[in-house]
Write a structure and sequence with these properties.
alpha/beta, 7-stranded mixed sheet, 6-stranded mixed sheet, 20 strands, about 20% strand, binds nicotinamide-adenine-dinucleotide
């Protein structure tokens, strides 16, 4: 019998499901059991061509609609997503293994927020009038054209919407390639947009690995590429986009600092560290995986952290009581287990976890290392799993310098009751998305993105509009033209 997660076909192009079984089969494995629940096929060159030519053809008419009309469609799509939240959350859980307890509140809901927010902004995308005596200049905010979105595997619904919603609001069309690890959810986003009234071809989904992503990025018809992925992939995609002078948004990896001062509220700081390391089993780009704890509070912090981490419920992700799911794939589990071994070898003190959980699926126990030093591998490399490194510090000046000593710059957080210090520390940290007495909140109203190797551009908020549109300026002369000859 076909599993309920199996989509009707692999791709969604020009308003309908499309299949081409000549493409390499991609198995979809449910991480909680290891069972194959679906198969899709990587896009063949013919599918890539179909998607790009369709999106190119659909864009002009879409951009000519009024912002109010485009916005209404996006907001209708948001309503449909909310009505179907339960089914979409179950699919997200099948796609990623994340527990339903999370997916019910963080995935289709976050996607719907983006569709609603950018739907609301679509009608207000205007230029300005610049008076120059008798003459004047006016500006127009125009669509970029055909955009390509490429997703990572941790938030397949959210990533499709965070890219698709602002792109479409500005009058662009999009070809979206989900991660080959989680190909299912973006197809539902495409289906819902069509149901909400989007013209066929403005949002298309094609499957495949990096090769398909590469074919999309290098096509001369593409005007912009928005990638969510790792730094090494980001470098390749950025370079390929530069060849064609294309616009880019790069949402890449991190190794973010979370700084906890002695005067912090202990339970809030522990809660922030848990949210910033164990949500989605640690598979979150903005995670605060270097937890710097001031020496005076350290042992109390570790004791409370170990106690609360012991309350994590590992189990069937479809059971809403489960609060901690598996790694997305066996491969990712093995990478993370490798880092845990490195942590032990390099002399970090294991506080809790530290091994694969004794159950089916790709579960790793939530793991905390203390006495981690700046040189250790677990303090330098992005692990993308449930491994928290706790490092000690004495002074503010010292911790800021150490926090910034990394190629990454996605996020940063600080816990303290001293607000002057909180703002000063955040002001000195090299990071794009920061938190004071909180961690990992990502409302659509707030800009999201990194500095340094963590990325270029911003998603969400009014900032995203700038990255999916461009300004045309028009000089209007009212009098005669004065020429030299
Ligand atoms: P990845 O870099 O392996 O893959 C990301 C996407 O790029 C996939 O769809 C992949 O098929 C595609 N790709 C790979 N090579 C390509 C190429 N040469 N040309 C075009 N496309 C190519 O990342 P992943 O393992 O799927 O995701 C984990 C990474 O993503 C982590 O580093 C994480 O921090 C990052 N991430 C960042 C954010 C953010 O918003 N900053 C969010 C989620 C994940």
């Amino acid at each position: 019998m076909t599993h309920p997660a199996q989509p009707k076909a692999s791709h969604f192009i020009n308003g309908e499901y499309v299949e081409d079984t000549a493409g390499t089969p991609i198995p979809v494995i449910y991480a909680a059991t290891g069972e194959q629940i679906a198969t899709v096929h990587a896009a063949t060159p013919a599918i890539v061509e179909q998607a790009l030519s369709t999106a190119k053809a659909a864009q002009k008419a879409w951009a000519k609609m009024t912002g109010t009309e485009r916005g209404r469609i996006l907001r209708r799509a948001a309503d449909i997503m909310r009505e179907r939240n339960h089914d979409l959350s179950v699919l997200e859980t099948y796609d990623t293994g994340k527990p339903l307890q999370e997916t019910l509140v963080a995935d289709a809901t976050s996607g719907a927020d983006a569709l609603e927010y950018f739907g609301g902004l679509a009608a207000s995308l205007t230029g300005e009038h610049i008076p120059l005596g008798e003459d004047w200049v006016y500006t127009k905010r125009e669509a970029l054209g055909l955009c390509v979105g490429i997703g990572a595997w941790n938030y397949p619904t959210q990533i499709a919407c965070w890219k698709g919603a602002p792109a479409l609001a500005c009058g662009n069309s999009m070809v979206f390639k989900p991660s080959e690890t989680t190909p299912l959810c973006a197809l539902k986003v495409a289906e819902i947009l069509i149901e909400a009234g989007a013209p066929a071809g403005v949002f298309n989904v094609v499957q495949g690995m990096g090769e398909v992503g590469g074919a999309l990025v290098t096509d001369p018809r593409v005007d912009k590429v928005s990638l969510t992925g790792s730094v090494p992939t980001g470098k390749k995609v950025y370079a390929a986009a530069a060849e064609g002078m294309k616009h880019v948004t790069m949402e890449l990896g991190g190794k973010s600092p979370l700084i906890i001062f002695d005067d912090a509220d202990l339970d809030n700081a522990v809660g922030g560290a848990i949210n910033g390391n164990f949500y989605s089993s640690g598979q979150v780009c903005s995670n605060g995986t270097r937890v710097f704890v001031q020496k005076g509070i350290k042992e109390k912090f570790l004791a409370r952290l170990a106690e609360r981490t012991g309350n994590a419920i590992l189990g069937d992700p479809m059971d809403e009581a489960t609060s901690f799911g598996p790694m997305v794939t066996e491969n990712q589990m093995n990478i993370v287990l490798g880092y845990i071994e490195k942590g032990k070898e390099e002399g970090a003190r294991l506080i809790c976890g530290g091994k694969r959980a004794d159950m089916d699926g790709y579960f790793i126990e939530p793991t905390v290392f203390a006495d981690v030093t700046d040189e250790m591998t677990i303090a330098r490399e992005e692990i993308f799993g449930p491994v928290m490194s706790v490092l000690d510090f004495d002074t503010e000046e010292e911790v800021v310098a150490r926090a910034n000593d990394t190629e990454f710059g996605l996020s940063a957080g600080v816990f303290t009751r001293d607000f002057t210090r909180a703002h000063r520390v955040i002001g000195n940290l090299e990071a794009g998305s920061c938190f004071i007495n909180s961690y990992n909140d990502a409302p659509v109203e707030a800009p999201f993105g990194g500095v340094k190797a963590s990325g270029v551009g911003r998603e969400n908020s009014k900032e995203a509009i700038k990255h999916f549109s461009q300004v045309k300026s028009v000089y209007v002369r009212m009098g005669d033209v004065d020429a030299a000859f």
